[in-house]
## 1
Amino acid sequence: MALPIPPAPTPTVLSVDDVALRRGCRYATVLIDAVTHQRVDVLPDRQAATLTTWLCEHPGAEVVCRDGSAAYAEAIRQGAPQAVQVSDRWHLWHGLGGAVEKTVIAHSTCWRTPPPRQPSQPQQPSQPVRAINERTRARHAAVHELLGQGVGLLECARRLGWALNTVKRYTRAATAEQLQRPPRYGRTLVDPYRDHLRRRLADDPGVPVTPAARRDPRAGLHRQRQPAGALPQPGPRPGRARSPATASPRRLDHEQARRAGRPRPQSPRRAAARPSPSSPSTSAPSPSCPPPGAATIWRTG
């Protein structure tokens, strides 16, 4: 006989987060003890009423760690009003990083302005303007020009052919620089050799980057030659060609076989059923049979 599992006490420091059972379709709420990192319970959905009911049935939580969900905040406020709500570490750092990035972008014009050039210093080549930045400035100017004429947001969206949320985003920004984002660089094969390539470009600004990286063995991107006696690289698998000249005759239709000059083989049954050109035609009437339409005379004994 199986014994029932004794109910575990409610942890004083509780962590609440959602988990995807099927991404984009079904979500659940997982409750974890923030001290022991043990799972406490799993709720069938992430609705505020479900979490409120669970907190009312399991009192004792003093600190509840959650993400930025407003539904969880309302559920904790109703189910455990005495508990202190705190943000978890990942969402705290994520929100802080986003706020710092927005602040730096908003003040990007302060550090983009180069220092005054001395008369003896050579003129530095200006950095190319990104196309997305030019498009952002043009859109920002178009929206604020219509707003200055007294046009509403809906009318601006209709005239420009944009979504209403896009027009609102450009309206909230005082300058176009607040909407610009720095370019995001992903990991590439050039990352370990980027400093070397920059030194090459500083020594010779006119050299193209791609040929320089391929010619220089120190960049690690040059094409390696096969040593003598090395086995050749495997080519395409045989039998994958679909040309009528190389494909199997059984895979060709009658038109392809006629163009390629390769008659398509027939099955023995079909070949036996078709008469040969030398055999007499079956359309001619047999001598023992009367021709069609001839009168038949019946003789009686």
## 2
Amino acid sequence: MPDLRTAAAKLLGIELYPDNMPQWAQDLVNQVCRDYELNVPFKFTWRKTNRQETSGRSWNDDDGVSKSGRKYNAKYAIQISQGWDEMHCKLVLLHELAHQIMPARESHSEAFWKCAYSLYRRYGIDMRYAYECEKNYKDMARTIGAEFLAGIW
């Protein structure tokens, strides 16, 4: 029997994954969705770039508007521009999945960063690496990351 995400995607006519999305990334998304009971099929956009770092965006609100106010044609979507550093890509994908797990109003809040760092730890991102990548992004990322490194969480 297919999982709820697969069934919902089929019903809505949404492809779960684009053809160019790496298998490891599909497997990671499937695992996170199972572990966190995310049954909403996301619209994925996956691009490859020739940069080292990966970037991403996430939409998870009911009106299809990103946190920056930009309109998008799907209520639940993740956009990844994949760089050549696979570990960084995995971190960015987990960051965007944290946006899907948390309510939209929690964008980059303390609760969001606790969720994100928990994902990094659970799915094999070295915590020092995660901290170094995220510490300059938002003040709360630095605070919560330091607490994870210190073993508080």
## 3
Amino acid sequence: MRYLSIILMTIVLSACQNASNKSQIEEKSETTLNGKLKFIRKDTTITTPASKVLTCTFEAYNTGTDSLEILEKIASCDCSSIELNKQTIAPNEPLFVTVKINTEGKAIGKHRTTVLLKTNGMRSFYDLAIHYSLVAKN
């Protein structure tokens, strides 16, 4: 009987949580703008000598009809920094996302760093990836 009570309580709480999530999603969709980024490329592969700062720039355009704002930018590694040429991108304007990766102390071989951009546009998240191989210095 005790287990049945716990199971029923779990189901009720889960249903309440689902209703709350649905409400939040509906509220978010009302505030989403008609901005959309179109990236020239979303990933790249680079080979570079170890112990260098690797720099990669991604180019995108706002193909939507509203301005788009970059709300957040996150790199998968603390060794990386992300620079944007602007936070708000008007329709048909470019966005340049420059990622710098400090390879100091990283092992020779293949590595991957990703960048996540969060926007207020039609598509909320954009993933970018840099695959890089570190080779020994000559």
